[in-house]
Amino acid sequence: MKKNNINLILKELKHKKMVALVAPSFVADFEYPKILSQLEKLGFDKIVELTFGAKLVNREYHKILKSSKGLVIATVCPGIVEVVNKNYPKYKKNLIRVDSPMIAMAKICKKIYPKHKTVFLSPCDYKKIEANKSKYVDYVIDYEQLREIFKEKKLNNIKPSKKIFDKFYNDYTKIYPLAGGLSKTAHLNDVIKKNEIKHIDGIKKVMQFLDKPDKKIKFLDVNFCVGGCIGGSHTCNLSIAKKKKRIIAYLNKAKRERIPLSRRGTFERAEGLKFTY
Whole-prediction pTM value? Predict the structure, then answer.
């Protein structure tokens, strides 16, 4: 995979400005805030989390679901998009045409940091494929590769600094990598009934639903992996329950953090950008 050339990425990190795009599932595999110091030591000039991108994606979902009448299928998971396109062509029209949080955040970073290369840290192969197709993501490193890099560079025992994520901070979307995270954070109560929303994790169950759909469901919040993104193929071997516990603990910690207003995600930062296609 062209954008997953680790040797090239490590070489580029030595002399080019690069921003790490960190999916909120990272905390199931890496320690926070130590990972920020590790990435900084590795050579990343900026480190941003995808949570603000998820917030902007949610806003688009909210708008579309408010006026939609038939079934809408979430497209934040590229594995789902691939399966629908390949195995269920009749549902192609139901796929919501909104960027994933990764693409949304990459677009924002290209606007705010125009001289930086973007590097996405990926929990799974489908996100790597999506990154490889996007002109907004320059490189991609999966979690397994990142663990190996930290080990090789002897960064596992590094002491955490006081560094925090660069700009675009948002807290409630930190549960996005959990099954149903999108529908739980998109504030859909005023646009769709609760019994019209269904979230399914695990491609077998998703396919079972698509084979025999429930006609009353209008929004399908689905993930290819069991557990959501925390069950990605390149995540660690902890149980889903333990990974989920880490995500919730991270969310609660984030709520207590004092983040300067200049670091918070505001819609003005995304002004002029389009997140639908």
Answer: 0.94
